[in-house]
Amino acid sequence: MSKQPHEEKLRIANPDSAGTGCGLGISSGQGSEAGSQSAITNPQSEIALRAARLTKCFRSGAADLVVLEDLELQVSRGEMVAIVGESGAGKSTLLHLLGTLDTPTNGEVYLIEKKISGWSPNEIAGLRNREIGFVWQFHYLLPEFSALENVTMPLRIRGIAQAAAERKGRELLGEVGLAGRVHHRPGELSGGEQQRVALARALVAEPSLLLADEPTGNLDLKTGDMVFRLIEQLHRTHQLTSVIATHNLAFAERCDRVLRLENGRLWPAEKRDRM
Ligand SMILES: Nc1ncnc2c1ncn2[C@@H]1O[C@H](COP(=O)(O)OP(=O)(O)OP(=O)(O)O)[C@@H](O)[C@H]1O
Ligand SMILES: [Mg+2]
Questions:
Q1: DSSP letter for each residue of 147-163
Q2: Which protein residue has the closest C-alpha to ligand 1 atom 28?
Q3: Residue 3 three-state SS
Q4: By the 8 A CB rule, do 47 and 75 touch?
Q5: Where does the chain show beta strands of DSSP type E?
Q6: Is 68:91 a contact under the CB 8 Å cutoff?
Q7: How many angstroms does the Cα of residue 41 sit away from the middle of ligand 2?
Q8: pTM score, two decimals?
Q9: Nearest protein Cα to ligand 1, atom 24
Q10: Per-residue pLDDT for 17 more than 60?
């Protein structure tokens, strides 16, 4: 694995350059998806998630910081894909774009065959709420609410009646092994248990896609292994399509595919690269 500092890996775009479409709003979304990243596609089955010529730049002084550039990705339904890459490579940026939490500078995200650009914020939020479960490095549970209340929150926001939401919430908490902790508040749970509650919350509304950003990053190795096993199990039982950013190469190896984010694009991670 390259040990270059991140600063050398990111390109700073000249705002006058038309290459990325950064800064000038030049469309680069018309091109083919062939090329150096073509190996990352999995042509066998239905595509659940797709990124086409995805570019993300952040304004940095007079120039643009190009984090993702013409990135291509296709994830088949039911696949579990790991994204690895050095700190600052753009993994979180990519997950935010795939999760419709941020908009690309250029290019497209397709969620279950639907092109996201052009949708209203409300439409995007609706699609996101229906289709995507998120898990982050930090659990973001609400401290004043119990595990059950945290897990049922997405259902209550949707207007599901309390009894039905609680039934579903208890079912999910049971699935993550916390049937005996439903009334505990986050502060009364261990780090691994907090992350299991966060997983239950992510899946309570039965999304088709799980996006996880370093879900074991805050946990010790043993607890992280237990949480990752749980993610694998939930991926199977809930028939999810999962994209997981991780620094843990052993966990990444357990996924169907490992992609390395480097120089703004995804590359198939060869075994030798992963060591
Ligand atoms: N909102 C923002 N404004 C400006 N720059 C940003 C913004 N968000 C991210 N960046 C920059 O984009 C680059 C990629 O950040 P990102 O968080 O996606 O990396 P990462 O691969 O997730 O890193 P890590 O493994 O440390 O979590 C970083 O250099 C970061 O400073
Ligand atoms: Mg990150």
A1: HHHHHHHHHHHTT--HH
A2: 88
A3: coil
A4: yes
A5: 11-13, 47-60, 63-76, 80-84, 106-111, 114-115, 132-135, 209-213, 241-245, 257-262, 265-268
A6: no
A7: 23
A8: 0.86
A9: 87
A10: no
218 confidence band (pLDDT: 50, 70, 90)? very high
Question: 180 near 117, Cβ under 8 Å?
Answer: no
User: Which range is least confidently modeled, 61-65, 74-78, 104-108, 162-166?
Assistant: 61-65
Atom 31 of ligand 1, residue of closest alpha carbon: 88
The number of helix segments (H) and strand segments (E) in the chain equals 9, 11
Ligand 1 environment, Cβ below 6 A: 10, 58, 65, 67, 85, 87-93
Residue 274 region by backbone torsions, left for phi larger than 0, else alpha for psi between -120 and 50, else beta: alpha
Q: Is there a contact between 247 and 214 (Cβ–Cβ < 8 Å)?
A: yes
Q: Which domains does the chain have, with CATH numbers?
A: 78-103+118-274 (3.40.50.300)
